[in-house]
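Structure, all two chains, one model.
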Amino acid sequence: MSEHRLVLRDIDIPDIEGITKYRSRGGYEGTRRALTEFSPQQTLEEVESSKLQGRGGSWSNVADKWRLMPPATGDVAAGERYLVVNGYESDPGVFRDRKLMERLPHRLIDGAIIAAYALQAEVIYVCLPTDMRRAVRALEVAVTEAREQGWLGRDIRGSGFDVDIRIHAGGNAHITGEETALLNSLEGRRPEPRPRPLIPTHHELFGRPALVHNAGTLAYLPDILVFGSAAFRQIGSRRCPGTLVLCVSGHVRRPGLYEVEIGSLTFRQLVEDLAGGMAAGSRLKAVLPGGLASQVLKPSELDVVLNPHELSGSGGADAVANSSFGNGAVVVMDETTCMVRTAVTIMEFYAAESCGACPPCREGAPWLLDVLRRIEAGSGNSCDIDTIRSVTGQIAPPSGSPAMCGFAPAFATGVRGILSAFGSEFDDHIDGNRGCSFAAVEDIRVPESVHLRY
Amino acid sequence: MDDGANRQGGRIEDSFDLAELDLASARLRNRSGSSKQSAEPVDHLENSLRRLHRYAEQAGMGEETVTRGEQLIRGCDPQPRGALVPLLLLFEEAEDGRLSFDELIEPVAEIIGLSPAGVRGVVTFHPALRTRSTQHDEAAPVGRCFRVCGGLSCALMGARRVTEYLAERFGIAEGSSSAAVEFRLESCQCLGACSAGPVMTIDGEHHESFTLERIDTILQALDMVATPFPGGQVE
């Protein structure tokens, strides 16, 4: 049971943020290879044959997404094309792209140039919230270094390909991380999601074709170009090759980032072995396997292999089949955790961050929060449970949500999951108006250590 | 169209529509598949840069700020409006808290060619900017802002205790500023360092994995008095 570091293999090395150290570890070889030995089309084919999948939570093939961009020839060719790197990962529980940008900014730039070359984009925007000051500084320094050494700018390394990176440190609203909202934000608008077309298509920025990419996915590209797609497919599962960077937080001995081979271990092994098991004196109660929106798992349900396609959200009777792999945020809770309060905390986030563009979310989130708070305070009644079920069911029905983006369905499935797994705890709060029997304010806890803190 | 001539008066209520129109016509050109350019496109970039220089002169801004502002605007070529949030933050920092966000909205709107309402709409959308825009009477200096992460992972590690402790120390309620001493305490959503909770930012600087003792050390290092402050107003 061990980690398998691919993207994070150099994170321990001092000064890896600098270009000298990054180059000495084989950095920018992928870019050099793509630009000098491959055509844009061949680069795309190499990535397609690697079966690399989007790490932002979609787990769809990267090459399929790239093919949505209109070809760089013909009438639409005149003018700029954009690659937008999404550094917003403001989902609670996720912090891997932030660490990547802080510690390995050149790896991100390396991958972004390769993607821009395949897409024939002339400008790369790296977008991140301005709160991430350390990441903004690291990226600014790295971009300057890369420019000085000729990896960015005009005619990179004599290949005739021009690309430059612009860092856009914007506001911190959660929804900015939604791809069309991010494009709106770049255009100086309120970051509200754009209406979704029925058929997936490319997006537009400043009226030009643009493709939005998760930062974590791009970090895999340099190695795929250097070592080849066949070697990449040897790692991980057949359907989903590569590694996963998991963000473990909560009541374990060693929370932190863990990079593991896809399909090589189960959630139980992750929690009990890699993360060191539960903190001293506490017993496991529940695990959110993939962020706030995933179906909560009980201790008996943890023997699921870590593979995005195992927890598929494809329906079925048991919790495991209903859960989704989500974004790799593994939140571990012990027995002192009140599940009603967990639901309240989750809904506080969604109610605060709802952008207000569509009613299921704008009305649904504050309303669910009110009901849950009422139950926590001991003034709920049994009808409240039925109402939560019915409303979450309307926000996220099996036939597809009426909401504009994935935000409302996320809280609906999350809360419904907690209610179905820990319904008796909700009943306890309601029976005889007892309210919450857990400590009113949790004590501060300090884990033994934090893995890959930096 | 001479875009600059319309702006000489300094008020540019109509420029929002111009920027919108330009974008819409670019979209239409792409849709219709014709690469034919309409007469002479408006040079938003040059106009923005000119207005930036004019504002910098009026406000007496340093050269460094102007250069940085130019970079930000050029970075959003062909639509300077994209530099909205970065420019606001740049000016705020350059003014070192002397100007509130509210006062910066008009100049920024003018520079990037949006209506003030358009800029305010974006500012009030982002939690971190929103709280800064509903400020502070003129006499009170903009104080230290404590933001405690309220995400689930931090909540599990005792974030509520941290808020409670700070509120007690400062004698104010969460979500409010003290009038006597310049600081503000608010709870915010995920700050993105979930393995190291509880997490908070003080004036944007990140602090993580702390205990109550460490909070005391941090406060002492910041020269914040160790005894609870008397009174304090709730907004």
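DSSP finds 18 helices and nine strands in chain A.
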